[in-house]
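Dear support,

Our group has been running a series of protein-ligand predictions, and this particular one with alpha-D-ribofuranose is the one our PI (initials K.S.) wants archived with full inputs and outputs. We had some confusion internally about which version of the output was final, so please treat the block below as the authoritative record. The input we submitted was:
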Amino acid sequence: MGKICVVGSLNMDLVATGKRIPVVGETVLGETFKQVPGGKGANQAAAMGRLHGDVAMIGKVGEDAFGEALIQALAEAKVETKDVTKAPTSTGIALITVQADGDNAIVVVPGANAELKPADIDAAKATIEESEIVITQLETPMDTVTYALKLAKKLGKVTILNPAPAVRLKDELIQNVDYLTPNETELAILSGMPTESQEELEAAAKAMMNKGVKVLIVTLGSKGCLVIDENGTRQFSAFKVKAVDTTAAGDSFNGGVAVALAEGKSLEEAIGFATKVGALTVQKAGAQSSLPTREEVDGFRG
Ligand code: RIB
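Confirmed final output from the archive:
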């Protein structure tokens, strides 16, 4: 099995649950509060570790208790953490509100994640060299993401970009991406095109393919996902499950795809595996607290 390197964010999630997410200017009474290890990069790495992937993380935390706790959580998920370094600032945090139907609203304050620089990628070059797949997201600086993807491609690695939170991307960055994995909202931002109807979704997806992406996987929540590659366009359905909390569902799906590809599975098999991982994740609360084990995924029948 090939090694996977995650370049990305680590956040401590401060999670309030309640009946519904407040509207602007409103105060609502919540029901529970929890502190849970999160961050899109760390969630993806932890998901892979729990799925028995061989995974290393490159990232930055602050010199505080949250930073220590996040490194510890990754180590417990069997993620290699020697390239998670510290900056003299506070660790990234995410303020998350989860409402009764499992949907959430998130504000991320990047903190130390903003200090992950191209020099940190150079310092961790040996880890990238020994990996087969490099995956990143957009919660660390764009220069660093671009640098990491370029270096990974130069070293002959397979690259995955989960473009979350989404912004318009430069062609220079997209050209170094093999697998692009937005959700439908992110695809609308990336392409500058609407994605509400099936026709709009496919047109926006094709516009991204024309920019040089090799495989596009658009996650559609309870509607499954749309995959486009050189073999055409296919839709995959999701399992019907009762969502408790959708936080980290996209992260665990990405983790599932990466682990399956690293194990040599086909794209179709990887999507099938990742769909199970996502379905199990939404049935539990929190980010890293909701990630399934390999045994749970292998035993899942929908
Ligand atoms: O994708 C979920 C993650 O987004 C949370 O864990 C939070 O930290 C934010 O980064």
